[in-house]
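Anyone else keep sequences and structure tokens together like this?

Example one:
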Amino acid sequence: MLAQLYRLPWPEPAAARKEILEALQAFRAAPFEPSDVHIPTGEGDRPPPPTVNPELEEQCRQERAQWDADVQLALRACLADAEADGCRLEALEFDKDDTVNGHIDFVTAASNLRARNYGIPEADKMHTKRVSGRIIPAMITTTALITGFVGLQAYKLALKKAAASFRNVYVNLAIPCIIPSEPAPPPQIPYLPAAPMAASSSSLGAPTAPGPEADPLAGRCFTLWDRLELNCARDVTLAQFL
């Protein structure tokens, strides 16, 4: 099916089945070896917290940023090459009545593998054929439509398009109605500082309250897309954090 999708030559079903059986018979899985990982079972069994190396963390952060940049460059190069070569995917239409396209065979094998994992009774090809004929119309409408719109926005993100090119899409297939719109800015949520502590007495006896410089977040607003990075120990508890 992947070969048909990418317009590649593919063998006949009988020859492909023979090659797959030979490959499976020759495959030998490596024996399972448990990893040497210590799992604490109580407070007294907890290992000491790992030491944090700021230089190593900064190096890892730079490597991740470089890796992300390399992936984006490779993706843009692949998209440009595919467009220049005129590469086009061939859409495959699901046909449960075709006995040689392998569609029902694939669905039956995939569903039976999942059923075997969870101890569910497996189904034969005829049962899969009857069930798939009822659920496919629902799968190829809303799910495929939403996935396609999400994929379009992912391409824009990979190609570093301007923020104005992104779209939200409202879909109602019962009407039918498809309305794209520009994303609205996220609502600003003002920061609410904690209740002030009891006023302390200065050397002159007059009470003093903590100034605004005591809280670096005072007067700021946040959105649901913002985040705070905390440089603290990995095993800090909620009480210690507060």
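And example two:
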Amino acid sequence: WTKLGRPRRLNRTTFSGHCFQNSFVTGVVVLGVIGLLSPATYGQTRGFSAQGQIGGLGLGWPALVLAGLVLGGIVYALVHRNGIRWAVVRMVDPWRRPMQDHDSYDGAVGALEACPETLRSRYAMRFVYKPPLLAVLATFFAFSSAYFLVDAILAQFVVGWQQPVLAVVNAVLSVVLWRVAAVPLSTWRLAVSVHKTVGTGYV
């Protein structure tokens, strides 16, 4: 029943592209702010920062470039704030109320109630916990790719060939994981609601 809840049309390529873009931009903003406030975190101690000045003020143009990227990421988030709010609401919603408006809800609840505890645990691992785990891993690799970008900027792009290669590899891994997670995430809300209904119920 949970599998029947999958959308008929799901473009995994588009989904993975959007998710990687959002997680990468978030990584640039978060890690960029850290780099501006504490360049020593990235091993940068040149200029005024080495003389006790605040943050990355003494790093010259790299700090300006990084500040521009951070500002651009913040503007991106503001432009897409409605989409961000929508995503947050959808993640929280199945924990707050049963998804009775979903066509597969009643059938999935009945099927899971008829299962022994071992099968319920397998259901939870596969449909409830696995999708967000894939999303966390995909976000981790997107952040790793963003880290290499921020580090390269602060180092004035004086880095070895390994750094851009690792950045690309992490980006590819993130996209692949988002693509793999697309289908499981499409039924995650339904699975959470079904599992909670059968397990603890809603107050």
